[in-house]
Design goal:
This protein has nine helices and three strands. It is mostly helical. It has a three-stranded antiparallel sheet with strand order 1-3-2.
């Protein structure tokens, strides 16, 4: 859940929730994506916090031993920071991973993960909270598959990063081409007319001449 989701669950505008409750909440409940700009929290932990419960969840009342005579019952929450909802080594196959987390599973860069998603080497992923996620099982299946492209993560055919940049339309080129049909232009003429350096003027003039030849 995002902090917007949490504020909605409490019936408050997010700016009000952050002003009144965010500091205490963040002290207690850990994010599931440390270091990321968008803070995300485990939904079960959020619900437990909002209900005033502890984490990890305590056993049902009938499973607990009664407090000794003269002792107060244990508080449901001791106020300490909670552990991660999913301890390391107990990950679930359906955990949703960011591009960075998926990249860590595959041993590649997060930009390569995004490229793989466009070529079909990885599924397109699921859009949530304005970003793309992949189930852990998908990342692990790709890691363990026979076609180990990610072990040699050079750009493959179809990779969008292989595309040459589109030439940018420069209206000055067309204008210079038109002017040269009336009278010859020099590099100095172009530089003075457009307020550019000599090298830029040479490039514009060469492009205009090519256009004129066409």
């Amino acid at each position: 859940m995002t902090e917007d989701d949490i504020a909605t669950a409490t019936g408050l505008p997010v700016h009000t929730w952050r002003r009144r409750h965010a500091a205490a909440f963040r002290t207690r409940v850990p994010v599931v994506n440390p270091g990321e700009r968008l803070r995300l929290y485990d939904e079960e932990q959020v619900r437990a916090y909002l209900d005033g419960m502890s984490w990890p969840p305590i056993a049902n009342d009938e499973d607990q031993e009664p407090a000794a005579e003269g002792q107060e019952p244990l508080a449901e929450d001791d106020g300490n920071a909670w552990p991660m909802a999913v301890p390391e080594g107990e990950e679930h196959p359906e955990d949703l991973l960011t591009d960075k987390e998926t990249a860590n599973v595959l041993g590649i860069r997060d930009a390569t993960v995004r490229a793989y998603a466009t070529t079909g080497y990885l599924p397109a992923g699921t859009e949530r909270h304005g970003r793309t996620w992949w189930p852990r099982r998908v990342a692990e299946a790709r890691r363990d598959a026979g076609d180990q492209h990610h072990q040699t993560p050079g750009r493959k055919p179809g990779d969008p990063r292989n595309r040459a940049p589109r030439p940018r339309h420069d209206p000055r080129i067309e204008e210079i081409a038109e002017l040269t049909t009336r009278a010859p232009l020099t590099t100095a003429d172009v530089a003075q007319r457009y307020g550019v350096g000599e090298r830029t003027a040479q490039r514009l003039l060469a492009a205009a001449r090519t256009r004129s030849d066409d």
